[in-house]
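Lay summary

Proteins are chains of building blocks that fold into shapes. Our project writes down both the chain and a compact code for its shape. Here are two examples, one after the other.
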Amino acid sequence: MNIIYVYGRDWPSEKAGISFSTYTAYGMAECDLKNNVDLIFAKNTELDYQEVLRNYFLLEPLSNFKVHLIETETLFSETTKFYFKAFSKIKELLKQKKIDAIITRTVKFLPFLYMIKKLYNIKVFFEAHSFYLDPKLKDEYDRKKEYIYQKLTLPRIDGIICHQSVIKNLYQEYIPDQNYAVITYGFRETTQLNEIWKNNYIGYIGSLYDDKGVQDVLYALKQIEDHTLKLLIVGGRSHRVEKYCNLAKKLEIEDRVEITGWVDRSKVEDYLKKIKIGLVPVRDTFHGRYLTCPTKIFNYFSHGIPVIGSNLPTVREIVTDKCGLFYENGSIQELIEVINKLNSSPELLNHYSKNILDRAEELLFKKRGQKFIEFMKNC
């Protein structure tokens, strides 16, 4: 298949969506060299895209995988300019070769996507990472345009790809007669850690926004039974790092808390090798309950690290009862109990680790790419 993937965000960047889309498209190209995949992003580098793939995403360039970067500097809306220029780039690619399918995860590009379908009779798909079809949400979050774009175009495209069944169920309430696929996120490869039990860190990978629930982990750390267990937080911008360092001092556990701040992807791998238990303390918000697909879970899984996470459907669906433990969000006492339980049993921890590694094959980006291709061919 010849496939175009459009995402109106800066490339490269640390945003989770950039990782999602880049690795997804790479998986489609990698699973079969007969698939030609073109990505269209907003430009955020002067480097050659192949150099960025190697050094930022740690991916080897492929002959059937290309990244096209759109210049968006303008006196007018940068995003609006991107949509028109992306539309022009698609027309240019159409002159060069037959295109079988176009995917976007950008809601405001949906009218352009539908226009392409009508003009050129090409299959078009929306990869759902947001939701605006509930009329109450459009008013609450001032998303009237997004509501209109989704309501008018999504019933008329060829399919919707969801990363979890919880978001698919949300869409099906409003668009029951549509083609859906549930294809979760994944990871590049697995690196099994030897003697994971001997690691002395519980770990958190990601940003430090309040809705991530990381502050609960610090309160729990103060009260867990094993005072030799430390907390490693990988990520966070400087002002938020300072906030959590101050909280650790207030709780008198600063000697047991290490916060790296934002680091390169290659360094994340080094830190993962120190972690015994991976944490996903997502808050119970609309986004946390229905929309998120925490990439940190796949960071942990790629090294066979068992997970402790909030008892939310978006966390449970990926982790399952076979790969970790759960606690009711906001209950620091329950969080303490599950950390104590997993940290006191090498048999249980190794059991979860083995289950994760047994699932590894189905979660590889290459396998995810194959599922995308099969779904689009069958629609």
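And here is the second example, written the same way.
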Amino acid sequence: MTDHLPPIVVSEGDYDTLSELAERTERALPKVSGFLAAELARAKVVPASRVPTDVVRMGSRAAFRMEATGVEREVTLVYPAEADILQDRLSILTPVGTALLGLAAGQSMSWSDRTGNRQRLTLRTVRASAAG
């Protein structure tokens, strides 16, 4: 069974930077860079000014629920160099980070974790990062 992939929206700037990042990390992180590349390939790419305010982009603060456990988290989606899980700064180069990219509030996304198990999250809310 294949999961329905929700439509996603990515800004032109995020698309360009993340495409390069996926390419640069292909050897070191083949699964997550492949997942990121696949998500970017299916994204609707628009100017930054046309990304809806309820869509996760780089720097967004995203609240989501893990469907299997019911655990709710709120993170800021960041580039790897800015990641700090103790400050809830989640790298785009994680399966959860990639799954969040481009989602709108209310959408759900599934992916396979490192052990091959299917995971699913539902995006609750999104807001711009206070820290720019």
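What can we say about the second shape? The longest helix spans residues 12-24.
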